[in-house]
Amino acid sequence: MTIITIPRRMIGKKELITIPRKEYEELLVFKKYFPVVEPSAEELRVIRQGRKEIEAGNYTPWEEVKHELANLHNRSRQKRNEAHAKS
Fold it and tell me: I want to staple 58 with a disulfide (CB 3.0 to 4.6 A). Which of 13, 42, 53, 79 is the partner?
């Protein structure tokens, strides 16, 4: 096992992690396509509002949303099939 000692002055007050080079290179590719974007003041306001709503329980659980979307999809498919059958 290889042991590396990193002097404290190199780290400073920042956190330090080590990862294999291949994973680091994959991270760089990911970062290229998905750059870090600082949210605007309005976006931060909306995020805070959303968090407050979640804390208050004002949200729809994912399973319920998924079920509703499946129902909508099935209804539109059924209408399409009915329209096609009438032709």
Answer: 53
